[in-house]
Amino acid sequence: MTGRVKGVQLSQAIVKTAAGWLLGLMLAAAAAAVSVNLVSNSVASPQQPVREYIDALKAGKGGEALGLLRATVPDANAAMLDGTALQTAASKINDIKLGNAEKRASNQVMVPMDYTIDGNPEHTEFLLERTGTEWLFFGKWSFVPSQLPTVDATVVNGSQASLNGVPVNLPNGHNTFAVFYPGQYEASLNGELFEAPATKVNVTARDAAQPPLDLMTRSTKAMNDAVSAKVKEFLDQCAAEATKLQKLQPDCPFYHATGSRVVDGTIKWQITEYPKISIEPYGGKWVISPLNGKARLTAREIDLFTGLALDLDVVHDFSFTTRLDISDNTVTVTPLLSY
Fold first, then answer.
1. Does 81 reside within a domain?
2. Which residue from 85, 162, 201, 244 has the fewest beta carbons nearer than 10 Å?
3. pTM of the prediction?
4. Domain co-membership, 284 together with 299
C-alpha cells in the first residue's frame, strides 16, 4: 500500500514539473514573439532608416546621409551637401512624427513624416524597399535609390552671395545647388556696397519643382551715402567756383540767362536742394538715376532800358546725369554735363 502511494506522488511530481517546464517554454516563446515584434517595429522597421537619415542631416554628415538615402548627386554645386550649410538646412526641422508604413508596389513601402519648419506644418513621404533579412526574423529596409533635388539661386548684378550662411559663387549671377530634403535653404547678400533681402525655400520632396532663390540686389545705405557725399561735394565746389569767377553760366548743371547787366562782384550761387540718390541696375551695371536739385542765385543787376538797379534772387531747377564706376569697393562718380 505504501509503495502504491509513493508511485502516485512521484507521477504527480513529474506532471507538475512537466507543466512548469511547458509553462516556462510558453512564456519564453511569448517573450520571444514580443521581442521580435518590438524589434520589428523599432530598429528593424522601415521608419528606422528615416530616423538615421534625419539624424545625419541634423549632424551635418552629408556623406552618411547620402549613403543612407542611396541618392546620386546631380550635375550641380555641392556646397549645401555637408557641414554648416546642411546643419542649417536641417536645424529648421522640428516636431517630427513618423507615420505607419504604407504598402506600395512589390516590396516597397512609403513612410510618411509630418513636421514643422519655422512653425509651419510640412509633410514628406519617403519610399523604401525591403532589401533582405537580418537575424532570420527581421526585415532589412533601405531607401529606394533616387537623385537629389536642386535649388537655383540668382543675384542681380553680382557673382557672390550667402546660402545657409556659407559664401557661394554665382557665375554670371546664377548657380544651381544640389540639396538634401527635407530642409530650408536661405539666400542672402550683405555686402558693404550692395545687399539683398533674404529669400528662402523649403525643400520637402525629391521630385518637386522648387522656386528659385532670387536675390533682388539694392545699394546699401553706406553706398547711397558715399555717392550722395560725392555729388554734394561736386555741386558745392561748382557753386563756389561759379561765385569766385562771377559766372552766370558756369560749367555746372545750373545757369542763369538774363538781358540785364549784372554788377560784377555781386553774383553768388548756393545749392538749396541736393539731389536724392537712387542707384538702379541697368544693362548688367549699376547706374545713378538722373539727379535733380535746386540752386539759388543772388546778384545785383541793372535794367538796360531804365537804368534801375534791382536785387536778383532766383531759384533754378537743374538736372544732370553721372557715370558710376565701382572697383574693389572703391566708388567713383563722374558728372556728365551737356551744354
1. yes
2. 244
3. 0.79
4. yes
